[in-house]
Amino acid sequence: MLFHSSLELIGNTPLVELSRIKIPNNNRIFAKLESYNPAGGVKDRTALHILQKAQKQGKLQKDSVVIEATAGNTGLGIAFVCLHFNIKAILVVPDKFSIEKQILIRSLGAEVINTPKELGMQGAIDKAKELLDSTPHSFSLCQFENPLNPEAHYLTTAKEIYADMRGVRDTNIRDFLGDLSTTHATSNDKKSSQIDLADEFCDDFKGYQAKNNLSNTDSSNSKIVSEKCGSSGKSQGSLLDINDRRDFSPLPHFSPQAELPKTPIFDYFVAGAGSGGSFSGIAKYLKEQDSRIQAVLCDPIGSVIGGGEKGCANIEGIGNNFIPKTMDTSLIDMVQKISDEQAYQGLRILAKEEGILSGISSGACLQACLKLAEQVENSLIVTLFADDLSRYLSKRIV
Ligand code: PMP
């Protein structure tokens, strides 16, 4: 697959079923792997969407300076997009956050300013405001207030999830994979089994598409399947209007309830919230498609977003000591409170059992999904893994 710029790699990330861990009550869990974005996290989408809009509206010039308070991943997304737009970026990061992210931000050519960990995210926000006031031609994405933040996910992440989940209820990967995971196949055996699996899946999938009058680009149940079925994957074209060019399937808006399928294409969406942009944008889109889909907030113990006592949490990127304007709490159907230790344990399970190297907030989301799976049955649960494990190595969690 050919791309003409690394900027084009933002979005269209894989959605993967967790096929090896034990999940109670015949539930199934699917994870959207946002670490597959080029700067490694979910916030690449937000940075691209907001900065691209600002550029189109003439709000960014050559001498503009982008300044933002960030837990790191937003900073990485901003540094990455600013590099492509030839604009300076300064990121204000509380010093409790991962040193790896700060090094990566600097390696993309942006500047990092630290604020004391005791002041939390609010301390970084205050410092960024001070810098914005004193720097000529400064621009802030205002990720905690800007409606374009949830909109980035409403327009991209949510649509990808909804498209990829269509038809999944009719297939069960564990029926196919059961043999593969218990017999110790050689890598060649595995490859041919995977290809057989893909053939079967491909046939099932084509049958499903025919039945439901869907085109090939409507779904990508697995990478093997989409390659063999000829799905396009990432879109291509000129740099400036990447969002305009995105190859989203013509998704129906099921407005009258009568048009809805008998069962929703999946049942629960589980995610954490830092700014709340991804949770709110995705949950809003999904509920507009099908109001039966429930949104479950994975919230650190100590965060006030999902309620409960204010405290000190160490699940980087999610939870906050205030409720951001970009977080629409009316979309929350259920809250799963997760401790730091549960999140670390979740991250280890993902690495050791699933072979998915995801970050701490992903570990928390896995635990929230597993808690939910104890409470419901025969459900399809979709979650979002925001970034990858390598940026937390200095925390010595694994
Ligand atoms: N996980 C991690 C690791 C993050 O950095 C972020 C961004 N703060 C999130 C989850 C949540 O993203 P959002 O800002 O969209 O709520």
SSE blueprint and pairings:
Layout: E1 15-17, E2 28-33, H1 43-56, E3 65-69, H2 73-85, E4 88-94, H3 99-107, E5 111-115, H4 120-134, E6 138-139, H5 148-165, H6 173-182, H7 187-212, H8 223-229, H9 242-245, E7 268-271, H10 277-289, E8 294-300, E9 334-338, H11 340-354, H12 360-375, E10 380-385
Parallel strand pairs: 2-10, 3-4, 3-6, 4-5, 7-8, 7-10, 8-9
Antiparallel strand pairs: 1-2
Helix pairs in contact: 1-2, 1-5, 2-3, 5-10, 7-8, 11-12
The chain binds 4'-deoxy-4'-aminopyridoxal-5'-phosphate.
Residues 41-43, 71, 73, 272-279, 316-318, 359, 361, 386-387 line the site of 4'-deoxy-4'-aminopyridoxal-5'-phosphate (PMP).
Describe this structure in words.
The chain has 398 residues and is α/β, with parallel strands linked by helices. Among the domains are: 43-139, Rossmann fold (3-Layer(aba) Sandwich), CATH 3.40.50.1100; 170-219, no CATH class. It has 12 helices and 10 strands. Helix 5 crosses helix 10 (277-289) and helix 7 (187-212) packs across helix 8 (223-229). The longest helix is centred in the middle third of the chain and has 26 residues, at 187-212. The protein is globular. Mean pLDDT is 84; it is low at 179-252. 4'-deoxy-4'-aminopyridoxal-5'-phosphate binds next to helix 10.
Index terms:
398 residues; 10 strands; binds 4'-deoxy-4'-aminopyridoxal-5'-phosphate; 40% helix; alpha/beta
In brief:
Among the domains are: 43-139, Rossmann fold (3-Layer(aba) Sandwich); 170-219, no CATH class. With 398 residues, the protein is of the alpha/beta class.
